[in-house]
Amino acid sequence: MDRNQKNEVVYRLERYRSKLMEHNDCVQEYKLMIPSGTQTLTDMPHGQSDTFEPERWAAKRESVLSRVKRLKREVEEARQLLLDMLSGLGNVDQAVLIGRYVDRKTWDQISLALKKPRTTIVRKHDRAIKQIAERSF
Asked: Which residues are bridge partners to 46 per DSSP?
């Protein structure tokens, strides 16, 4: 396994988390764009005359909503890729990779959670990455 293969495997493992975070941020942005009776319309676009332009604001909301839908599809694709990559690995190897790349835990946190020495966790990680690379490339 060369360095490029390892980097590609790591990128694919991290892709799910990054897409999920991007989706969640976009959903939050959309929620903030929905006015309530007690909320000021600070995000509503203003024209040169400083009047509200509901059409532009609605178009912006529609644009964000379509981005939410696209990101949801990308999250599902990344999730399926992650599941495919993890299939065939043992439970501990899966837990190490999920802890490291999805939950962004440190080696020590993973070690503590799995009640195994840190060196064992790092070895299991390296072996799992190698197994995935061998299956993928």
From this structure: 52
Whole-prediction pTM value? Answer: 0.77
DSSP states along the chain: --HHHHHHHHHHHHHHHHHHHHHHHHHHHHHHTS--TTS--TTS-B-TTS-B-HHHHHHHHHHHHHHHHHHHHHHHHHHHHHHHHHTTS-HHHHHHHIIIIIS---HHHHHHHHTS-HHHHHHHHHHHHHHHHHHH-
pLDDT single digits (tens) 19-47: 999 999 999 999 888 765 444 555 555 55
Determine which of 32-36, 59-63, 86-90 has the lowest per-residue pLDDT on average: 32-36
* For helices 54-86 and 3-32, angle between their N-to-C axes, nearest 10 degrees: 150
